[in-house]
Design goal:
alpha/beta, six-stranded parallel β-sheet, single chain, seven-stranded mixed β-sheet, 468 residues
């Protein structure tokens, strides 16, 4: 059986994950969930696996179809994005039309929430519901043996009576039992993160996120499940020895949830002299001052902090109450240790007033972030905030729409988004504070600031890009 794992094409450098998708013109991360499914296939007999990352390969839909026809897949497995959902559906429907004998399998957050609606509006064959690895393994075994799909839990499919939805176990309790992702299916030389050494890799050490942020889609759920430190170290060494990686991203939703676990991993990396620079995602209220020096010694180059707002009122609205005074201490300690800090902020909470917006900008400046990324709040189905605000939002899958009913609200958010960037990056001392980095990476900085200026000084309806 020939199986193709597909990251669908798009004209933008879309990063797709189960929890999110976003346009990131200045970075490209490997498609982790697809690599994980490739690892599952590695242990099955009579399967030949391919991975087409149309984003990394810069394929359009016709190029993908041409490549697929050369492989003659029995099964095509694709991940769907969020704001690019309609584009993904159009591309995948066209691919299925061109290869009608190939089974089209879809997974992702929307696929999990709306399997029946997707099957009724597309020519796809099967939807995987929830955390896909074990379900996918059972599905492939079923297909290999020509068994009936009714024997597989956690999928949706069509039969003579219509769409059948068969829920299964929602989570994998022991991800450490899963095989290593199939890195060998990719050219890791195509992936990168800003200002990090190449080649670049990516590792997930845990799944899920235990916090209560009401706007957030988590990686498969709230319950946090871990891989072992030994397994993580083994994977890092594998990437170094086989792909020569010099930097990597720990892609966990919140890498620093448990300090002892982070310190243990850092100590092992130091003892083994792995000499990698790496980045991760964190919350300031999970990062105690004892952990930060260990992270630096182990090679931590940059931490991405989900700050969201510098207003306690807005943070409380998001169910993300944290001590902003203590947050500043944590951020300052990171700077003292020589770790870059990037702040992720959201504009557009319904309770956000002008003083709350100003408080966010002031916090970003006071914290002296190396970089900020500012995004308009998008409220997604499956989150508590969506249920709270659903009367204020126009949402549909076909055609895809996820927007505020009050267009004036969205226009205000777009203006504030641009204003945040302008106030943060175009202040007098920013370039002075970052002169060293400008000298080390002049062309990357010039490219990013050109994109940023193009976004800031154009009309609000201009298509959004993200910046570092």
């Amino acid at each position: 059986m020939n199986i193709v794992l597909l990251n669908p094409p798009n004209k933008h450098r879309i990063q797709r994950r189960f929890m999110c998708s976003y346009n990131a013109p200045n970075q490209l991360l490997p498609p982790q969930e697809l690599m994980a499914l490739g690892g599952v296939l590695r242990k099955l007999d009579n399967c030949k696996t391919f991975l087409i990352d149309a984003i990394a390969e810069q394929y359009n839909t016709l190029s993908v179809i041409e490549r697929l026809k050369s492989l003659q897949p029995d099964v095509i497995v694709a991940i769907q994005g969020f704001e690019c959902f309609e584009e993904d559906m159009l591309a995948l429907v066209k691919i299925k039309q061109s290869l009608p004998s190939s089974r089209m399998v879809l997974f992702g957050h929307y696929a999990t929430l709306f399997p029946k609606e997707i099957l009724e509006n597309t020519n796809f064959d099967i939807i995987i519901i929830g955390e896909p690895d074990n379900i996918f393994c059972d599905l492939v075994k079923c297909l290999l043996n020509n068994n009936d799909l009714s024997q597989v839990s956690g999928i949706a499919y069509r039969n003579q009576t219509g769409v059948v939805v068969q829920p299964g176990d929602s989570r994998i309790p022991h991800p450490e039992l899963l095989p290593m992702p199939a890195y060998e299916l990719l050219d890791l030389g195509k992936y990168f993160e800003p200002f990090l050494k190449a080649p670049f890799g990516l590792i997930q050490t845990a799944r899920g996120c235990p916090y209560n942020c009401n706007y957030c889609v988590r990686s498969f759920g709230k319950r946090l499940t871990y891989r072992s430190t030994d397994q993580i170290i083994e994977e890092i060494i594998f990437l170094k020895e086989n792909f020569g990686i010099r930097s990597l991203r720990f892609i966990d939703d919140t890498f620093t949830v448990h300090s002892k676990r982070v310190i243990e991993l850092c100590k092992r990396m130091i003892e083994l002299k792995l000499q990698l620079e790496w980045t991760c995602l964190s919350r300031v209220d999970t990062l105690d001052l004892e952990v930060i020096p260990w992270m630096k010694k182990a090679g931590c180059k940059r931490i991405y902090f989900g700050i969201e707002s510098g207003s306690m009122k807005v943070l409380k609205y998001f169910d993300k109450e944290m001590d902003l005074t203590n947050a500043l201490k944590v951020l300052q300690r990171c700077k003292l240790e020589g770790i870059e800090i990037l702040g992720l902020f959201m504009i557009g909470a319904p309770v956000e007033e002008e003083e709350d917006f100003v408080a966010s900008v002031d916090f970003a400046v006071k914290a002296n972030f190396d970089y900020v990324i500012v995004s308009e709040l998008i409220v997604y189905p499956g989150t508590p905030l969506f249920e709270q605000l659903r009367t204020q939002i126009n949402f549909s899958l076909f055609p895809y729409k996820n927007e505020w009913k009050d267009g004036r609200f969205s226009e205000r958010n777009k203006r504030r988004e641009k204003e945040f960037y302008r106030r943060f990056y175009y202040r007098k001392n920013y370039f002075a504070l970052h002169a060293g980095k400008l000298l080390r990476h002049p062309f990357q900085y010039l490219d990013n600031f050109t994109k940023l200026a193009s976004f800031i000084f154009t009309k609000p309806e201009k298509e959004r890009a993200d910046f570092i």
